[in-house]
Amino acid sequence: MLADAAAGLRRNGLMAAAATTTMALALLVAGGGFVVSANLAHLAGTLEAQVEVVGFFRRDVPPAAQERVLAQTVALGGTSAATLVTRAEALRRLQQTYRSMASVPAVLPGNPLPDSIEVRVADPRRIREVAEALRAMEGVEDVVYGAAVVDRVIALTRAVRVAGLVATALLVGCALVIIVNTIRLAVAARRQEIEIMALVGASPGFVRGPFLVEGLLQGAAAALAATVALTAAYLVLAARAAASLPFLPVLAPGAVLPAALAVLWSLGLVVGLGGSEIGLRRYLTA
Amino acid sequence: MIHFDGVGKRYPTGVAALSQVTVRIDPGEFVFLVGPTGSGKSTFLKLIQAIERPTTGRVVVDGDDVGALPAAAVPRLRRRLGVVFQEFKLLPDRTVADNVAFALRVTGTDPVEIGPRVQWALETVGMAPRADDLPARLSGGEQQRVCLARAIVTRPRVVLADEPTGNLDPEAAWEIVQLLARINLRGTTVLVSTHNPTLVDILRRRVIELCAGRIVRDEARGLYQATR
Ligand SMILES: Nc1ncnc2c1ncn2[C@@H]1O[C@H](COP(=O)(O)OP(=O)(O)O)[C@@H](O)[C@H]1O
Ligand SMILES: [Mg+2]
To answer: Are residues A33 and A127 part of one domain?
Structure first.
């Protein structure tokens, strides 16, 4: 049966190749979309856990005034930690994160960063309240907090998911049409054989088996190609991201690839099998 | 073996191919089915194979009510029937032996049995020396003998031949009919539709004549034409 299926694929080589390629592309988009949205969701989660409000002081605020702001902030309640960060400390951190900024002090006349106060909020739901209170305090020029970023990342995650699903659906649709046609060609090429099989009493499963296997093989070949491409791309990109954007919480390959590949393989096999099933339905009614 | 009881067959197009056909064919009989083109001979044979279903009446083949047979049971019915066609229906890209083996392979026969049974079937029809040839290298008569080998290799209870000599010269036609008669001698029921008066008249077997879908004659040792 496997030999029959392989022979069928050879006969319609070009068509089968087109079907497999389109399918692989569809699966790659599906897998890629899955990986990207998983990472964005992870990023949103990470950001949400770091619910931190940062208040930047005007440059002329003396340390004593900063201490007062710190005391008022702690008095607000709902905070789990609050610390003052001097501009020197801020620059040091920045240089640690970005190697390329090691030479900043030499280039710039002075430290361009402001002093700041970092507040960790115990309950993420109170973050806006704390931020507004801090903004109203004497000497605080600007306040940034994670919620806005988190919201944006969540919106981005949703957009990536929708775009990924739409692109996957379109490509899967194309792949399905091509697979259906490949199977129809295969059926047409073996019409006489199928007719004789039916007349001598071959069971329907025996007649259909090779075609279903043929579709399944196309799905599996596409899934294999997509697996190789997705794994290689993710390993390379994750390593590169870790090197150049160290603050970005990229998921380890082992944490996201197995699920992505499971999605991709199920989709490949289901579409391969479904395509042959549809391709067979028109011709094999007897 | 085959029992038609008040059988009518109307195609979806509205054509009444058979009407009120009642006939019984016993195990081991040799029957010629004659009648002009369009009289319903092929339809008669298709009903036996459950390729078509009767619109009225009952068709019983080897104990199975064909009209009521579920689709899943059809292969089992067809494995008990050997079929031969006017246009041979041999697979052009397979050797003679592979064509005959095909009927066994696709019905799930034990692979170790296939070789000896193909050999036996080819010997029966005198085509064993051509086992490795492709069908295109054979004459029409030889191709039809391979078809016959494919029909009997599964050891069917019944052999159905729809105008098996229609595409053959008289000599080849005669060989085929003699082979069918020999297969019948071993106890296989044989049902042959034909347009060939000579063959029918020489063999003098049971003749069922159809005309416009009705049985107009059924004679035990008949001729092609009715004798008045
Ligand atoms: N599949 C079909 N659909 C519609 N009409 C058919 C079909 N097969 C046969 N017929 C009609 O049924 C009648 C009997 O045909 P058939 O059984 O083939 O006769 P024969 O074999 O004696 O020539 C004819 O009128 C033919 O046109
Ligand atoms: Mg006919």
So the answer is: no
Across the interface, do A195 and B89 touch by the CB < 8 Å criterion?
A: yes
- How far is ligand 1, taken at its centre, from the CA of residue B73, in Å? 25
ipTM for the assembly: 0.89
Query: Regarding the domain delimited by B1-80+156-228, which CATH topology (the fold level of the hierarchy) does it fall under?
Result: Rossmann fold (3.40.50)
More confident residue, B149 or A255: B149
The torsion angle over the Cα atoms of residues A159, A165, A168 and A172, rounded to 10 degrees, is -160
Atom 27 of ligand 1, residue of closest alpha carbon = B38
Confidence (pLDDT) at B194: 93
Inter-chain residue contact B89 with A197, CB threshold 8 Å: no
Q: Answer whether residue A286 shows pLDDT above 50.
A: no
Residue numbers in A near B80 (CB within 8 A)? 201
Say yes or no: A175 and A257 in one domain.
yes
Q: Tell whether A7 lies on the interface with B, counting CB pairs under 8 A.
A: no
- Domains identified in chain A, total number: 2
Instruction: Tokens for B141, please give them.
Output: 């008569």
User: What stretches of chain A adopt beta strand conformation (E)?
Assistant: 52-57, 79-85, 116-121, 140-145
Which domain CATH number covers A110?
Answer: 3.30.70.3040
B153-205 pLDDT tens trace: 999 999 999 999 988 999 999 999 999 999 999 999 999 999 888 889 998 99
- The closest residue, in CA terms, to atom 1 on ligand 1 is B11
- Domain identity same for A130 and A268: no
For ligand 1, say whether the CB of B38 is within 6 Å of any of its atoms.
yes
Whats the size of chain B, residue-wise?
228
**Which percentage of chain B shows pLDDT scores above 70?**
100
Q: What share of chain B is helix, strand, coil (3-state, %, to 5)?
A: 35, 25, 35
A275 and A138 in a common domain: no
